[in-house]
Automatic annotation (TrEMBL):
Occurrences of domain Major facilitator superfamily (MFS) profile (ranges): 54-493
Annotated protein name in UniProt: Major facilitator superfamily (MFS) profile domain-containing protein
PANTHER family, per the entry: PTHR48021, RH09188P
Pfam family, one: Sugar_tr
Organism encoding this protein: Atta cephalotes
This protein's record includes keyword Membrane: yes
A Gene Ontology term for the protein's cellular component: membrane
Keyword annotations from UniProtKB, A to Z: Membrane, Transmembrane, Transmembrane helix
Membrane-topology annotation of the record: Multi-pass membrane protein
Length: 540
């Protein structure tokens, strides 16, 4: 199987068992490439095998960003109940409360769209550092707020920042990961995201809402400092013709493995030149819009765009984020005042965090499709059981409360296992490299627009159909999600992005009607494929 020019270095397995002739041949090509840019290559021996801890350091910096991004999501769950208490500084009604919860999601897609141009202009690391600044400002405004208007302003600024950081965080991790660890590392950011929700729930159970806002400033500051310790993405550096910096970044990331760096520089440059050759040279805004629309209409871009957006719509309808935004209020409705609402919310956040870590491990063992179907069916089952028990429960029975609590925790765990974490992974795996910027921006824009409407109108729908009706809707939508995953979602585990892109060039839309590739007899790479960085035809 050949690897086309668009294959990117960070999607390929590490070098092992290649002949000296192969390295020599590719090393000479890489040296010639660097000479074309006016750089001299100083050869060095292979350094210590420290690339894995180094990639963990990069991931750790991104995880701090993700944790800071999860706190604003869960903040409304502790803010709104406190503002409804009698001793609150000021009070909000249901309509105003829905705006406080939803306005964050309205601002997030704007931040996601803004991140596209900045992603190419200042780099992935630069975008993440820049996003930390408005996040600190937003929390400071909320902490000092004494009226609803200032809280709304702070929520908007936080939403812009969270949207701005989403795509750069995934891209930076993806561009330093090998295929075998790509899912683990990207989904790890969702574990950190869940940790942020857990932190804000825990702080909200112990402190007043303004104190919680001040505590939230610590994480973006820590993330900014941590990002100063890691290099910029080598792919972005080479695209900007900063070859020397790219070489240093790759040497740092690969633990001093000179041979691998030579090979990756060559592959990166070839890939980037091929992408640039596809793009028309123009400066007018109209032509840029036309070029972007032309890119989106490409079947290799349009198909994954549709799949991810449909998946996201069904995921949101299954209650994945509604339970985060309104956790305390929903638990209050379910428990009928017989349980500690804040403590129960913290427990749901703990379950969410634990299952996000479990999903990281399962992604190394299970395919994306299997994990998604299990998660969707589990969510559907838990939702419908919970709805049925709400209908049949006896008034004043303490046993009922515990049964409902178990159902709720089962729902949160099953939902987190696949439905929560898969969309972010899909953006990095299904979208081709040439369209990841514009495609990722569009996906996050549509996702957060849908999230805004669902968050804004949830209180109204809840008043119409009640908690029982809400969980019935969650159950039905989760079941539809399972059917959609079975029919349309392609399996991406242990496949290079080039293979995934080739799949989307087929005429079919449904995965079950695909033309199977030869390697699908096993579903995993052959030993030769796992050990090669270059096309198989060149392996000795």
């Amino acid at each position: 199987m050949r690897t086309s020019a668009r294959t990117s270095f960070h999607l390929l397995p590490p070098l092992r068992k290649e002949s000296p002739q192969t390295f020599s041949r590719r090393g000479q090509r890489a040296k010639a490439l660097m000479a074309d840019y006016g750089y001299q290559w100083s050869s060095s021996k292979k350094g210590p095998n420290q690339s894995e801890p180094i990639r963990c350091l990069v991931t750790g910096a991104v995880l701090l960003v993700a944790t800071g991004g999860g706190i604003p999501i869960g903040y409304s769950a502790v803010l709104l109940p406190q503002l409804s208490e009698e001793n609150s500084t000021f009070h909000v009604d249901r309509e105003t409360g829905s705006w406080i919860a939803a306005v964050h999601s309205l601002a997030t897609p704007i931040g996601a769209l803004l991140s596209g141009p900045f992603l190419d202009a200042i780099g992935r690391r630069g975008c993440l550092q820049l996003s930390s600044i408005p996040l600190c400002i937003g929390w400071l405004i909320i902490g000092l707020s004494r009226n609803v208007t200032s809280i709304l302003v702070g929520r908007v600024i936080c939403g812009l920042s969270v949207g701005f950081m989403a795509v750069p965080a995934q891209v930076l991790v993806g561009e330093t990961a090998y295929p075998g660890l790509r899912g683990f590392l990207v989904v790890g950011s969702f574990g950190a995201y869940c940790a942020g929700i857990l932190l804000v729930y825990a702080f909200g159970a112990s402190f007043n809402w303004d104190i919680v806002a001040f505590y939230a400033i610590v994480l973006p500051i820590a993330a900014f400092i941590a990002l100063c310790l890691v290099p910029e993405s080598p792919a972005w550096l080479i695209r900007r013709k900063k070859i020397d910096k790219a070489k240093k970044a790759l040497l740092w990331l690969r633990g001093g493995n000179t041979e691998q760096v030579l090979a990756e520089i060559e592959l990166l440059d070839t890939s980037i030149k091929a992408d640039l050759a596809r793009k028309p040279v123009n400066t007018s805004f109209t032509k840029r819009i036309s070029s972007a629309m032309s890119t989106i209409r490409d079947p290799g871009v349009l198909k994954p765009l549709i799949i991810i957006n449909v998946f996201n719509a069904l995921q949101l309808s299954s209650g994945t984020y509604i339970i985060v935004f309104y956790a305390v209020d929903m638990i209050k409705d379910i428990g009928n005042g017989n349980i500690d609402n804040y403590l129960a919310a913290v427990v749901t956040a703990i379950i969410r965090f634990i299952f996000s870590l479990v999903s990281c491990v399962l992604l190394l063992k299970m395919g994306r499709r299997a994990l998604g179907i299990v998660s969707a069916l589990g969510t559907s089952l838990a939702s419908l059981i919970l709805a049925g028990y709400l209908i049949a429960r006896k008034e004043g029975s303490s046993v009922d409360v515990y049964v409902l609590a178990v159902c709720l925790l089962f729902y949160v765990g099953a939902n987190t296992l696949g439905l929560l974490i898969l969309p972010g992974l899909m953006v990095g795996e299904l979208m081709p490299l040439r369209a990841r910027g514009i495609g990722g921006g569009c996906i996050f824009f549509i996702f957060n627009l849908l999230l805004f409407f669902m968050t804004k109108f949830f209180p109204m729908i809840n008043s119409l159909v009640g908690t029982t009706g809400i969980f019935t809707i969650f159950g039905i939508c989760s079941f539809l999600e399972a059917i959609f995953i079975y029919l349309a979602l392609p399996e991406t585990k242990d496949r290079t992005l080039q293979e995934i892109e080739e799949y989307f060039q087929q005429s079919n839309f449904l995965w079950i009607t695909r033309t199977k590739m030869k390697r699908e007899n096993t579903g995993v790479p052959t030993k030769a494929e796992s050990n090669c960085l270059i096309p198989l035809s060149e392996c000795k």
